[in-house]
Design brief:
The complex is a heterodimer. By secondary structure, chain A is α/β, with parallel strands linked by helices. Chain A has five helices and six strands, in the order E-H-E-H-E-H-E-H-E-E-H. In chain A, helix 1 links the parallel strand 1 and strand 2. In chain A, helix 2 runs parallel beside helix 3. The chains are: A alpha/beta, B alpha+beta. Chains A and B meet through helix 1, strand 2, strand 6 and helix 5 of A and strand 1, helix 3 and helix 9 of B.
């Protein structure tokens, strides 16, 4: 089933790459932005099924974004992507109910698999 | 007894301590070399296509390799009593080139809205567009005769959009438009193009263009008429650089 995905990262090249991978391999609608506030707006207006965010962004930390979108939609899964793959930031992200956590560099299959799992989780949450 | 002490003191530099220091240096050198090779091998693996990474990762790994190379040179100099000191300036030169190459151009140029052609090369491609970047290469690297001129960067475009609150509309357009539906694409493109054409040019940009024009006139010795080279779009990246202005074929 086609879902709506919002991706936010301060690196436009990474956004392009993720969009390319996800639109090539899935039927999902993929919205990308470098602006976390725009991502929040899109999560609301498009009733997004999944948010993928960088952990460290100049305008807003990924954890802060996570807290805001969880208030809008508690069933919205969020996958955090970061180059700072420390145990501490992973634990912190999961403590704030991030769905999953991926450390750069990662394999294309890894993001596709994690997106698939997150969307299945969202479906199960909406059913119950 | 004193005689033996003298012998011991004289032997010390070439003795156990000396050997241990050299051994430690040699060990550090091998470790740094192995670490550098491991990072390079990892970079090679991830560049082969199956991995997703960004420039932040490349910058961090480049810095790590440079640190390891510096350690190698330091230890070589310890082992060889500074016989390899000539490697230090060569290393610094390579380090500066690598750091310049991997530095974030978007950060460097984020605040620049107009750039003279004399300051442009291919590294600014994303901010000035392919035509201008190539023109800059011809002018500043090959030193072939080229007209004077200046470029309005992608940042200038972003500021025009932001000042007229068009940035989010354009972003939404790119996200929403169905590129497979030519009729919809044409209609929506027309609407967004009209909105951009009606946009107000921010005073700061007007002032900067005027300033660059005055400088150009000063360089040429007359007030030139200008020819405009338009920007272009890059696939998947949206707006791909700035427009260039230079003297036209006729003197004004």
């Amino acid at each position: 089933m086609a879902a709506t995905l919002v991706i936010v990262d301060d690196e436009p090249d990474l956004l392009d790459l993720l969009k390319l991978i996800l639109t090539e391999k899935t039927d999902h609608k993929v919205l990308t932005t470098t602006n976390p506030h725009q991502a929040i707006e899109w999560c609301k207006s498009y009733q997004a099924d999944l948010l993928i965010s960088d952990l460290r962004m100049p305008e807003m930390e990924g954890i802060e974004l996570l807290k805001i979108v969880k208030q809008i939609d508690p069933n919205l899964p969020l996958i955090l992507i970061t180059a700072y793959g420390t145990i501490e930031s992973a634990v912190e992200a999961m403590r704030h109910q991030a769905f999953d956590y991926i450390t750069k560099p990662f394999k294309k299959e890894q993001i596709l698999m994690t997106v698939d799992k997150a969307l299945k989780w969202r479906q199960s949450q909406l059913v119950t | 007894m004193k005689i033996f002490d003298i012998f011991r003191r004289k032997k010390a530099p070439a003795g156990e301590d000396f050997f241990q220091k050299k051994y430690q240096s040699f060990k550090k050198l091998l470790d740094a070399n192995n670490d550098a090779l491991e990072i390079m091998s990892r970079l090679e693996t991830i560049s082969e296509g199956d991995f997703v990474f960004d420039m932040q990762y490349i910058r961090a790994r480049s810095d790590a390799i440079l640190d390891k190379c510096q350690e190698i040179i330091d230890e070589l100099n310890v082992l060889g009593n500074n016989r390899y000191a000539a490697l230090i300036p060569i290393y610094e030169d390579i380090k500066a080139k690598i750091q310049h190459e991997v530095a974030s151009r978007s950060v460097q140029t984020r605040e620049v809205i107009v750039l003279p052609l004399s300051q442009i090369d291919r590294r600014l491609l994303l901010e000035v567009g392919g035509k201008n970047a190539n023109l800059g290469e011809i002018k500043n690297r090959l030193h072939l005769p080229t007209p004077e001129g200046f470029v309005l960067t992608a940042e200038a475009y972003r500021r025009v959009l932001a000042a007229n609150r068009l940035d989010q509309r354009v972003a939404a357009f790119f996200q929403e438009v169905d590129t497979g539906n030519l009729e919809e694409l044409t209609d929506k493109s027309r609407v967004i193009r009209e909105q951009i054409l009606q946009a107000e040019i921010p005073p700061r940009l007007q002032e900067e263009v005027s300033r660059q024009y005055q400088q150009l006139a000063q360089t040429l010795g007359y007030e030139p008429r200008l020819a405009l080279r338009g920007p272009h779009r890059q696939p998947r990246r949206g707006y791909g650089g700035g427009g260039g202005l230079g003297p036209g074929p006729h003197r004004g």
